[in-house]
Amino acid sequence: MGTSELINFVLIEDDDDHAAIVLRTLERNRVVNNVKRLIDGADALAYLREEPPYAGRPMPDVILLDLKLPKVDGHEVLKKIKEDPGLKHIPVVILTTSNAEADRAKAYAHHANSYLVKPVNFQRFRQMVSDLSLYWGVWNKPAPQRGPQPELLGQDSHA
């Protein structure tokens, strides 16, 4: 995705301090043109499914998902995203304080695209978000909107 294209991130994070670090870093890097922050899992699912009041929202290019969320936890949000044919192509980056092997295993079992543990050190956390924004916002080439067309699968991609 080139830097001239609009890049939409969704940040699902209930901790105001963590969210502020992510939002400030993304803004400072000027890689992401639009960030929507949601603070609980139920609201996140409503947003992603375009339920009222979110009808017509922009399709996210990347979702940054905390695991420890109110209402619906991050594992359940991830599972629902990856089960939905209209959402499953969107990369989901787990951004959490949990370094527990069980959480990592469960996240990858539900097809997380990446699992990042938030560093305690402020500078390292900011650097992680900066690197993340460059990778997902500039270097990574996303899937086509709404996923690939079934008739195109298996055709030569000229790799």
Kindly give the count of domains: 1
Question: What is the alpha-carbon Rg in Å?
Answer: 15 Å
> What is the tally of helical segments?
5
N/C terminus separation: 17 Å
Uncertain runs are: none
List the helices and strands and how they pair.
Blueprint lengths: L7 E5 L3 H14 L4 E5 L2 H8 L13 E4 L8 H10 L8 E5 L4 H9 L4 E4 L4 H18 L20
Parallel strand pairs: 1-2, 1-3, 3-4, 4-5
Helix pairs in contact: 1-5, 2-3
How would you characterize this protein structure?
The protein has 159 residues and is α/β, with parallel strands linked by helices. It has a single domain (8-139), classed as Response regulator (Rossmann fold, 3-Layer(aba) Sandwich), CATH 3.40.50.2300. 37% of the residues lie in helices and 14% in strands. It is built from five helices and five strands. The chain has helices spanning 16-29, 41-48, 74-83, 101-109, 122-139; strands at 8-12, 34-38, 62-65, 92-96, 114-117. The chain has a five-stranded parallel β-sheet, with helices on both faces. Strand 3 (62-65), helix 3 (74-83) and strand 4 (92-96) form a beta-alpha-beta unit. Helix 1 (16-29) crosses helix 5 and helix 2 (41-48) runs parallel beside helix 3.
Any key phrases for this structure?
alpha/beta, 159 residues, Rossmann fold, single chain, five-stranded parallel sheet
Summarize the structure.
This protein is of the alpha/beta class and 159 residues long. It has helices spanning 16-29, 41-48, 74-83, 101-109, 122-139, and strands at 8-12, 34-38, 62-65, 92-96, 114-117. Strands 2-1-3-4-5 form a five-stranded parallel β-sheet, sandwiched between helices.
